[in-house]
Amino acid sequence: MGKLGVYIQVPFCQTKCTYCNFHTGVVSPGRFAPYAAAVCREIDNHRQLFESSGITISSLDAAKARAVDTVYLGGGTPSLLEPELLAAMLQSLRANFDCSFSEVTLEADPETIDAEKAAQWAATGFNRISFGTQSFVDEELKAAGRMHRREDIYRAVPILRAAGIRNISFDLIAGLPKQTDASWRQSLSEAIALGPEHISIYMMEIDEGSRLGLEVLQSGSRYSAKDLPTEESMAEFYEQAQAELKSAGYVQYEISNWAKAGFESRHNLKYWRREPYLGFGAGAHSFSGTQRWANRHDAAVYVAAISEGKSAIETVDTLTPTLALEEEFFLGLRQLSGIDLARIERDYGVSLSGKVSDLAAHGMVETQGNILRLPAGKLSVSNEVIVELLRSVQVSV
Ligand code: SF4
């Protein structure tokens, strides 16, 4: 087991993007400092708060439960907060854990970046900035309700480089309203030309959790709902991204993620490898290896609970062997490097070789020694494969 990752959620944004289905809100900046103070207090009191919610912290052995090497501040738009507030959160971690940070990521939106902030972030210890780029086409950014424009991206990247940030990640969304084959190629090629170390490509999700999703499901036309690319186009966008990024020297290491050699997200790899992480802040999730738990989403409720010295944890789930095995497949097979079949057979007392041979014969999976993985061209059918694998086994431990 490696060291812990820590995720800190900052659920505030300047506006609500039309496609956003996250639990984030637009609040007055006066609420930022009390929120940051609550996060610091939650970190300071985490052992007592976890134990009061029935979390078996002893499942992480004492030394490893205190060693942290990756931190991820996500949201929301954590770059909206004053750098001093972000610094205070990292300081609380340093005061409460044995910290030897190798990767400290801040999610930032391009329009929130200026030279002074970037210098403060770097001085505080942030060494990776994950950019909500989404598109390089202003018409698409505008339709999606984004605050930034293409020129903000070009302004922000040199500022970060000048501040000494050597690890930049861009997010792009395939399937934005008004996106076309030509505009997608433009976004891809402009992203690649700026030379970020890491690129994430997310597929537009249509569900009732966003204004755009709701509009589409009700056959309305607001939020450019009638200008969404078709599912076939989105699948083509994804395949184009796979080809373009590969030829530009990026290695795909996960369904949605590509990196230059050595720049895979160490923090996010913990999620897919089922390594322990602790989450702080409203809506943050944690995983100890045997239990998963989550805080309340509502930031005001979260701040009120923590301020009164109470736990903000809303759900605690203890994993059964069956659930843990499902996670091994659903999370592990997202990685292009695959999963260790021998370890899984040993840990869960199952035999998968018959089903794996069957799936391999149909080109649905690949094997190499003990490693089982999905072929790069079959990532979109991962759920089908996983359901087949799970059907074939009965967990005996
Ligand atoms: S910036 Fe991100 S988290 Fe905030 S509303 Fe837009 S998509 Fe949602």
Structural notes for this entry:
Helix content is 39%, strand content 20%. By secondary structure, the protein is of the alpha/beta class. The model has no long low-confidence stretch (mean pLDDT 94). The structure holds iron/sulfur cluster (SF4). Iron/sulfur cluster (SF4) binds next to loops.
SSE sequence, one letter per element = EHHEHEHEHHEHEHHEEHEEEHEHEHHEEH
Gross geometry: globular
Q: What small molecules does this complex bind?
A: iron/sulfur cluster
Major β-sheet, in short?
A: 9 strands, mixed
Order of the strands making up the biggest sheet: 7-8-6-5-4-3-2-1-9
**Spans where pLDDT lies below 50 across 5 or more residues:** none
Per DSSP E runs of 2 or more residues, the count of β-strands stands at 15
The helix count comes to 15
Arithmetic mean pLDDT: 94
Computed over alpha carbons, the radius of gyration is 21 Å
Kindly, what is the distance between the CA atoms of the first and last residues, rounded to a whole number of angstroms?
20 Å
The level of helicity is: 25-40%
Percentage of residues in strands: 15-25%
Structural class: alpha/beta
